[in-house]
Amino acid sequence: MDVLRPTLININGRIYRRNVVKEQLYQEEEDDEDFSYSGSVTAQCTDEPCDSINVEQTEKGYRCALDVPSVLYKYIIGKKGETKKRLESETRTSINIPKQGVEGQIVISGQQKASVTSAVTRIEVLVESFRRKQPFTHFLSFPLNHPQIQERFLKFKEEVLEQCSEAQGVDGSIFQNPAKLHLTIGTLALLNDMEVTRACDLLQQCQEFIQEITGGKPLPLEVVGIEYMNDDPAMVDVLYAKVQVKDGSDKLQVIADRLVEHFVAAGLMVREWDRVKLHGTIMNTLFRKDPSAEDKGGSGRPNMNHREAFDARSILKRFGTYHFGEFDLNAVHISQRFSTDVSGYYTSSGLITFS
């Protein structure tokens, strides 16, 4: 099936097949920041030139400039420059890459337009493959930190610690920061200021369909009940609060799914599930080691390596239908990971309102 249904990579609205090849190892050396892989560049990706690639004619031939975040240069250069040399040799082009850490354009030039187009295609697929390996930097979020919700959450925490502290692994360190209660819609790896600006522009484009769904008004929500996502409530690493629209409609789900569709189509987000899981993390064992930690909210059971577990049976029994409160949701944010603004919520790189 890997051959019949290969991995598809979305690059600026163009779809490429990724050939099935042996997973390549990229090793970083203390004295050398670049990376390499075994096998030919040709084997790494399917060469599918596209007319939408902007190749311009010059006095000496043809050229194309690509905007690539500097953090990804090393994957094009390769260990001791081998990847870049191989690309240039196989496509008969010259590839000019800015110095490491300097944001700029990678310029590909050659005598033949087809050669430049081929090199561009291979570089884009290579970059996109390694972009997916970068940790996420931002995420689309619905804030749940309304004062009433925070107050009821703190009451929940107090009562859980009073009544369930004897349960294995339950203590105050695994509770969410009330000022950062949120729903994660999807995660983004925005690797420079240009990509942050592009994401903000994409979010602005979503305001029209959101206001059509909400009628240009805030969306009344209620946060009621607790759930977990694995098979054994005695071995849980995350507990979630359930969030729903007060009138019972699916408006919140539709907005979340359409936001993901918009960012996936633009190539800034990777789709993980058919539908966004609407839940707000209230307890997470990641917080025990790092109170600032965020999980990949859409992935069900994120970051499972070296995670601890706690016994949630007594919490689910006593607080399974706990009412955290009601509020009017009026914004979606591009939130910056590992950040805090003056309100205690995540620093917002951009937002749009429902009303």
Automatic annotation (TrEMBL):
GO terms for molecular function: RNA binding. The keyword RNA-binding applies. InterPro entries: AKAP7-like_phosphoesterase, ASCC1, KH-I_ASCC1, KH_dom, KH_dom_type_1, KH_dom_type_1_sf. Transmembrane segments: none annotated. It comes from the Eukaryota. Residues 60-128 form the K Homology domain. Pfam families: AKAP7_NLS, KH_1. One of its GO terms (biological process) is regulation of DNA-templated transcription. Keywords: RNA-binding. GO terms for cellular component: nucleus. This is K Homology domain-containing protein.
